[in-house]
Amino acid sequence: MPRATKIVATLGPASNSPEILEAMIRAGVNVVRLNFSHGTAQDHINRANMVRDAAQRAGTEVAIMADLQGPKIRVGKFAEGKVMLENGAAFVLDAARTELGDEHGVGLDYKELPRDVKPGDMLLLNDGLIVMKVEAVGDGRRTVQQQRHQQTGWRPDSPRPDRQRHGGHQNRHGAAG
Fold first, then answer.
1. pTM of the complete model beyond 0.85
2. I need a labelling partner for 160 at 20 to 30 A (CA). Which of 3, 24, 79, 144 fits?
3. Most distant pair of Cα atoms in the chain: their distance
4. What does the alpha-carbon distance between residue 172 and residue 150 come to, in Å, rounded to a whole number?
5. 105 vs 115: CA distance, rounded Å
6. What does DSSP assign to residue 129?
């Protein structure tokens, strides 16, 4: 009788070899999760093929689950290690900034962000703990947000546009830094 419960395993550094993956499948893994936040499109194709090959060697079928969190965009470092943001205060994400950030703004690695957002868009920072509304986009390189939620302290993390406007192409910003 087939079991109703499925065993899901994430393919990661400890399981990213054909031998380990095959052993996991033989031990009962039914679903292999691929984290699309890390790697390129070709990396994901190679991993999916490795799962299919390991399942075939094990004589079973295995589902592949794609975790599509979306691109993560890294902000620069802060001079004081972290900043305290005030609810309602303006904050600048500056694609051209190279100096350390402060409570007024910070640089970022995704240089196209000012082009990809418009006033009224929402950005989620620090894995969604901070929500900012784009108030203005200026001179082709700066994006100004109005903070909506207070956070006790913020270290560099990952703002994510609330919608994908990247032309459907794979970008390198899915990789954690």
1. no
2. 79
3. 64
4. 30
5. 18
6. T
3-state secondary structure of 11: coil
How far apart are alpha carbons 17 and 62 in whole angstroms?
16
- Residue 87, CA atoms < 13 Å, CB-side half-sphere: 6
131-152 confidence digits (pLDDT tens)? 888 888 876 555 555 555 444 4
Distance CA 138, CA 21 (A): 49
pLDDT, tens digit, 9 for 90 and up, residues 31-85 = 999 988 778 889 999 999 999 999 999 999 999 999 886 566 778 888 888 888 8
Strands 83-85 and 90-94: unpaired
Residues 43, 79: Cα–Cα separation, whole Å? 35
According to DSSP, the β-strands at 90-94 and 105-107 are parallel
Superfamily of domain 83-161: PK beta-barrel domain-like (2.40.33.10)
